[in-house]
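User: These chains co-purify. Model them together.
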Amino acid sequence: MMFPIIDWNLISLEVLISLILVSLVVMDIALPRKVEKDWIGISSFVALLGLIIFWLTQGNLNGVTFSGMFVMDPLAWFFKALFLITMVFVFAMTQEFFKAMGERRNEFYLLLWLSLLGMCFVASSADFLLLFISVEILTISLYVMTAYLKSDELSIEAGMKYLILGSLASGFLLYGISFLYGTTHSTHFNVVQAFVSTHAMSPMTLFALVLIFAAVGFKIAAVPFHMWVADVYQGAPTPVTALLSVGSKAAGFLILIRLFFGVFGAWHFQLSFMLAVLAAITMTYGNLVAMFQTNIKRLMGYSSISHAGYLLMGAAAGSALGASGINFYLLGYLFSNLAAFLVIIVFSIATRSDEIEDYAGLSQRSNLLALTMLLALVSLAGMPPLAGFFGKFTLLMAVIKSGYVWLALIAGVNIVISLYYYLMIVKRIYVDPPRNSSPIAVPATIQWLLGIAILGIVVIGIFQGPFLDAAITAVQGMYLSHL
Amino acid sequence: MIIPNLSWILLLPLLGLGLLCLVPASSVSLIRRISNIAVLLPFILSIWVYTAYDHVAGGFQFVTNIPWVAPLGISYHLGVDGINSLMLLLLGAASLSAILISESIKERVKEYYVLLLITIIGTYGAFLSLDIFFFYFFHEIAAVPVFLMIAIWGSARREYAAMKLTLFLVAGAAIALIGLLALYLACGLQTFDLVQIQQQLAIHPLPFAVQNWIFLLIVLGFGITLTLWPFYTWAPVGYAEAPTAISMLHAGVLKKMGAYAIIRFAIQLMPQAAHAWMPIIAGLAIINIVYCGLIALTQRDLKYILGYSSCSHMGYILLGLACFNTIGLNGVVYLMFAHGIMAALSFALVGFVENQTKTRNLDELGGLLKCMPFIGTCFMMACLASAGVPGFANFVAEILVLLGAWDQYPGLTVFAVFGLVITAIYMLKAIRLGFQGPLAFKFEKLTDAQTFWAKFPYVLLLAILILVGCLPSIILTHIHSSTKAIVGTELVSVR
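Assistant: Joint model of the two components:
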């Protein structure tokens, strides 16, 4: 039997992550149970920083290995970088979270590493089977983490809800893949892509596509696959909410770009209108419902639905501009959303509350938290000079270029609606008098991360060029023409 | 001769902003000093730029052009012509007086000055940019700081007013953005550079159908900023509840960005569509003038009177835009400047009165000339300027607009003149009820503006109004050098 030649360089990140995971497991077993110090958390954090530095030097990895199942291209590189940055924030949040929550933190770190591994494999999948397996690695670790707080009813409920709907979505994905296999006789992206470019869409493939889109729609929280969002976001431990809203959503969009721009690219014009309608419904629904939320995590949940809607605009546009717009938007969204979640987590540890009305007068309790929240929310609303603005700008440009002026107008209305509820929170923080004026202490690590997040929001917002270049490079392989 | 570098107009206040962030919030006087200097320096630079601008040569001068986002054709492109060099002067004067009268702010001083400086920097950036992207970028920077300033330092209904103003303006901006993006894509040049787009469109205008809807989006979007009827409702309540400095800057300058954008992006780039839409805009302009003027007549609150008055006067700007001849457009730019100075002055004065008497209601005020003769006199002069009395800049501007309008819409012009009468009525009413008559007992202890620095902002603005009103040529030559390029045809004869 011949073994395929494996290029270990291409898969170096995944190998490193697995090695770290295994050594952390060993460390967890070897460490005495009663250690106060959070060794696993600290070593995870250090390992992650090392991985980021390593990854930034690997920008020109290109190639295919494992018989074409594993692909390393600029798109994968870009998204793996996004996942690594997200994880730095999530790990720091987790450390703070378990300082307050107490026990069983070590397993949580292991689950986080596992989900990172899953996301990295998603980024490099070039075969529907690998895609399915890596999505499952990601999702199953998320199920466990969502329901992690055994004594918290909301967490259990969230985990259950996520599990049931998530399994349904996985079922859809597998079902869709099987129909696709039935038509194309392959699960390889390349083969399917070749099939798509030479054949017209048949009812059976359309059915398969709809099923696959449903699974992706679940990941990115697009209407009508959004039912789980509010309860899961509210009930899950906050670091998991942050991971769901950024990492898991980015993974979903990565799949969307790979499949609907790459593999099914030739059929895109037939799907484009459907995507545009879904984008419009998703953003409008998310924003309208977000207006009436009183819990900040639920509000962030609905707001993340609306951001999925904005991002879907790029998918509807179907051009290189749309795809790079998605990438850029995700980059800005990552910093803005994680900054907001950092504030939420510090605030909830200090006050035991996630209610928006308790944020009253935050600016007088902690200047840094208030400023970060202000910048994060205003950036999410898409106002210059912050990161969120340029993302919306490129996406709007992409849809107008593809002829969907009506979608751009709906997005314009949505920007106003979203600004309303974001500004209501800003108003609470800066205008309303505090109910309890005791200052909130921010731990040093979190201060650093808040600083980095603010820097990210402002720098990406003002010096858009290099980041847009990275976003464009990431999708360059998929298109022959330039913007 | 040293050529001014326009970037310093942005960098100096930005530097001041950076310094301000480092100063602890408790050292109030240092904060005030840094902010005053950070606003004074760009004003001085603006005067320099204005005087150094060669109006005979015309065109854009002192240009800085740095590629910013190459794939989309965005560049950091600054430059001035006769129109925006004048707008820089307007902003410089208004912002200097606004920051000087902010001495009366005692709470959360540091945050106040930081937000005010951001607003001013954004506005400078918008007027300086010759890149459509950067115009929009800078123009939107002010939105959130203005929201916060109204919501934190405003008066009674501040939260409602702040939200209403911000949402209206952002909605307008979003509509305009879609129009601008469509314009960019329709040009097919892959650049946001205004100069290149101008050159391209002058030779190959867009198809009429395309022009038509892009023009509509841009004018509608920026029209909301310009309080185009029926989208003006945010302005009176916003200006009334805002802290004085924001009322001054917003009514005086920020609003004018709408007119500026319509001139630059709509009228100049899409003249055919402009011709088609003009009669409708002229009609709306008349509604603006008369309707908002009549509402101002019924108001008892000084700031609401000024707010509706400002909406009413925007009608003249719209009417001038709708004329599509040089004389009308000259009048528009002149009026943008004159009204900006006048609005800043009158809001500053009302702010002073409110600060002293704790009320703006005309029924409670009266006889204030007795206890504050300086402020009262300034207010009377501002009212006269607003009513278009000769000797003040507004007179020249309104005459130009009306002459331009008479050429195109003689019937409508009659109503526009009628608007001046309405202005005179409500302004005289404000003077009579507020400043003449018996002085209420509780106001007897009030003091006038006494020190030089307390009087300086009002004197500065008033001096500009009178200077420009008596010597129109010092700004008209600059304006004309640029407007003639926009409308294309030379002065239409005045019959």
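Residues 326-357 of chain B form the longest helix (32 residues).
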